[in-house]
Design a protein that fits this description.
The complex is a heterodimer of chains A (311) and B (99). With 311 residues, chain A is α/β, with parallel strands linked by helices. Chain A has a single domain (10-305), classed as Thiamin diphosphate (ThDP)-binding fold, Pyr/PP domains (Rossmann fold). Helix content of chain A is 37%, strand content 13%. Chain A is globular and about 70 Å long. Chain B has helices spanning 47-51, 77-81, 95-98, and strands spanning 33-37, 57-60, 63-67, 90-94. Helices cover 14% and strands 19% of the residues of chain B. The longest helix of chain B has 5 residues, at 47-51. Chain B has a domain at 32-98: Alpha-Beta Plaits (2-Layer Sandwich). The chains are: A alpha/beta (311), B alpha+beta (99). The A-B interface holds A 4-5, 7-9, 12, 14-28, 31-32, 35, 54, 56-64, 66, 195, 227-233 and B 1, 6, 15, 17-27, 30-31, 45-47, 49-56, 59, 62, 68, 70-77, 79-81.
Chain lengths: 311, 99
C-alpha cells in the first residue's frame, strides 16, 4: 500500500487545465491510478467525458504516450499496443526486461455497453493490461442518457420521470461479475473517496502477469444532481450503504476490502442526489423498498462469496 | 501552442502533441469560490492533494506549498476533505468578496 508521502514524490501524470467539471470524480480516479502505477506507462481511453475534456485540440492533459481511437475499442487499442511492445522486445528493439504498464480508462458507456466486446476480447486473450472503468452510471458526456450501468429508479433523459414512469425500470448490469467470469487474475470494485483502497487495488492489479479490471464508482455532479464538494462523501456513502460494495477477486478468491461498521439504509445515499428525488414522492414507496431489497439480496450473496458471516 | 486556430496546412501531422500541454490553458476563471490555504494550520496530511480533481494543490519537497489558482475550478473538495478542526486549514471564500 503506497503512502501519500511516497505518492507525492511522483511526477503528476494528469495536468491541470483539462476541462472536466469542477469536482468531477473521473479526474480524481485517473490521477490516483496514474500516480500509483509504476512508470513508464502507456494509456488509452474510450470516448467519454475523461477523453473529451482532457484532449481538446490542441491541448492534452496526459503526460505519457496516450491514444484514443473510438468509443468501442479502447481495450482492443490497448491490447494491440501491448502486443506491439511484446513484438519489439522479441525483435530486440526494446530490452527484454523493459517493464511497461498499459492502462485503459473507459466510462460506463464505453465499458458496460459500447466497448464490452473489445474489453471481453482483450481480457480473454490475456494481455498484460489494466482496464479502469470510471463508472458514473450514465452517458454523461452526451447529455445524461441511460446506460446498462444506470441503477433502477434513476432519472436520465432517456429514462425520464413522469406520470407514467419512475425513471429507469431495469436493474443495472453487474459488470464486475462478468469480468470475474473471465477468470482473469484480478478484478475489483472501488470508489472515488477512498484513495487507500483504490491505490492498493491498482498496485495489486499491475503486479499481475495478465489482465486486470477495476470498476470505480464515480459520482457525476451534473447527471446525479449533487454538489461538487460532495463527490467523495457520496462515493463513501455508496460503499457504506452497500450500493457499491468494495471488494476484490484475486486469482478467483473473493475478499471484502471494506466492511461497513454499520450498513446504512439506501435512502441516505439516494437523498443526496437529484436523480432520485422523485422516489421520495407519494406512490413510490414500493419502488424504494424494492431498491433496498435488491441491495440487501446482493450484499448477502457477496458476503457468502467472501466467506463472511451473514448479518 | 496558442489559442489561434491553425489552418489545415499548418496542423501538425497526425495528432502527435507535446505531453501535458493542458496546463497552458487556464481554467481558474471558472471559479466562483476560492480556496484559501492557511500554512500555520495545515498538518500536511496531503488529503487535499490526493483528492484534487485539477492537480491544483502545489507540492514542494513532499509538502503542500499553496494552491494553483490558474487551474483550480473552486469545487471545494480540498476544503471539504481537510480534517483540521475546528477551523479548517483550507476555507472557501467567494471570489466576489476577494475582489
Amino acid at each position: 500500500m503506497p503512502s501519500l508521502k511516497e505518492l507525492s514524490k511522483e511526477k503528476e501524470s494528469l495536468s491541470g487545465g483539462h476541462r472536466l467539471c469542477a469536482g468531477c470524480g473521473a479526474s480524481i480516479v485517473a490521477r490516483q491510478v496514474l500516480l500509483t502505477a509504476p512508470k513508464p506507462l502507456v494509456v488509452t481511453c474510450a470516448t467519454g467525458c475523461l477523453e473529451v475534456a482532457t484532449t481538446i485540440f490542441p491541448y492534452t492533459a496526459w503526460e505519457m504516450p496516450w491514444m484514443h481511437s473510438a468509443f468501442e475499442n479502447a481495450a482492443a487499442t490497448c491490447s494491440g499496443i501491448e502486443s506491439a511492445y511484446q513484438s519489439l522486445k522479441k525483435q530486440g528493439t526494446l530490452p527484454v526486461d523493459a517493464n511497461i504498464n498499459f492502462i485503459t480508462f473507459g466510462g460506463d458507456g464505453g465499458t458496460y455497453d459500447i466497448g464490452l466486446q473489445s474489453l471481453s476480447g482483450a481480457m480473454e486473450r490475456g494481455h498484460k493490461m489494466l482496464y479502469v472503468c470510471y463508472n458514473n452510471q450514465a452517458y454523461m458526456n452526451t447529455g445524461i442518457q441511460r446506460s446498462s450501468a444506470t441503477p433502477k429508479g434513476g432519472f436520465t433523459t432517456t429514462s425520464p420521470v413522469g406520470k407514467v414512469k419512475p425513471g429507469k425500470e431495469q436493474s443495472r448490469k453487474d459488470l464486475t461479475e462478468i469480468m470475474v467470469a473471465h477468470n482473469i487474475p484480478y478484478v475489483a470494485q472501488a470508489v472515488v473517496g477512498d484513495w487507500r483502497d483504490l491505490t492498493t487495488k491498482v498496485q495489486k492489479a499491475l503486479s499481475k502477469d495478465g489482465p486486470s479490471f477495476i470498476n470505480v464508482l464515480t459520482p457525476c455532479r451534473l447527471g446525479w444532481g449533487c454538489a461538487p464538494e460532495k463527490t467523495l462523501d457520496i462515493g463513501r456513502l455508496a460503499a457504506d450503504t452497500c450500493f457499491w460494495p468494495l471488494y476484490e477477486v484475486e486469482e478467483g478468491v473473493y475478499k471484502l476490502t471494506h466492511k461497513p461498521k454499520e450498513k446504512k439504509p439506501i435512502i441516505k445515499l439516494l437523498k443526496l442526489q437529484d436523480r432520485f428525488k422523485h422516489l421520495f414522492k407519494k406512490g413510490n414507496e414500493a419502488l424504494l423498498a424494492e431498491i433496498q431489497e435488491d441491495i440487501d439480496k446482493k450484499w448477502k450473496k457477496l458476503l457468502f462469496l467472501c466467506g463472511e458471516k451473514s448479518e | 501552442m496558442s489559442d489561434e486556430k491553425k489552418g489545415w496546412k499548418e496542423l501538425p501531422i497526425g495528432a502527435i502533441l507535446e505531453a501535458g500541454t493542458a496546463k497552458n490553458y487556464k481554467t481558474g476563471d471558472w471559479r466562483h469560490i476560492r480556496p484559501i490555504w492557511n500554512k500555520e494550520k495545515c498538518i500536511q496530511c496531503l488529503r487535499c492533494w490526493i483528492y484534487c480533481p485539477d492537480s491544483s494543490i502545489i507540492i514542494k519537497d513532499g509538502k503542500v506549498d499553496g494552491i494553483d489558482l490558474d487551474h483550480c475550478k473552486g469545487c471545494g473538495i480540498c476544503a471539504a476533505e481537510c480534517p483540521v478542526k475546528p477551523v479548517k486549514a483550507i476555507t472557501m471564500v467567494s471570489e466576489k468578496e476577494i475582489k
